[in-house]
Amino acid sequence: MNIHILRSLVLGSALVVLSAGCATSSSGLKAKTVPASAFLAGTGPMKAHRNREPFNGVWASPKFEAVRGNYRGISIAPVTTQYLRAVDRPLVTVMEGPKAKDRPAAQTAEILRNEFLAAFRNAPGGRYAVASGKGAGVLTLELALVELNPTNVVGNAVKYGAPGGAAMAPVTKGNIAIEGKLRDSNSGEVLFAFADNEQDKFGLISLRDFSSYGHARSAIKDWAKQFAELMRTPASHKVEDSSTISLNPF
Length: 250
Hints:
35% of the residues lie in helices and 18% in strands. The relative contact order is 0.21. It is α/β, with parallel strands linked by helices. It has a seven-stranded mixed β-sheet with strand order 1-2-7-6-5-3-4, covered by helices on one side.
């Protein structure tokens, strides 16, 4: 399809999507919370703390807000895939075949870490310098990739090409879920933890629908920016959740 025609279709449909935004946001487009993995076990005396954070689950030490201003550096550890669950989308497994089982887990974990590193390096104000390891005034962020279910590319081809194919949308979506722990790098004390799950965003036309992990990479970018914003802003600042709708076809 000509790129100019594609853009015209998207822009021409934008008002329709936006006018339906409120109804759409409440119709199940937001990914559901997934069970916590063993990665989050043994994090100490923390309490549920979802207040200004955009994640499904948030836990914080009672002293976290009081002490986080004492830190000026952050180290981001290599992302673990030890807790990654098997693909649990039967239709994806059937239609995608070996691709659904042979996931780029290591590559995705590397992308996840690199996006978080980039978010802190590029964050306005530079409150947290990226550190290479432990040290005084340094936090360590540990991340786990716990779910990675590919987008059903074959199903999306049917969805776009067949009459009534839109009915397939709920079963063609992939998802990605992560968990994170923020420690004092010297003492090892966990001060903050979070978990979130994101599924493919809704769009009238999206080239990411034809990429097994394009939507997952988009979610990773959102998480990295959100977490960096959360860390560099005061407790009175609310970090907005990512939209379930995308008008960008790329």
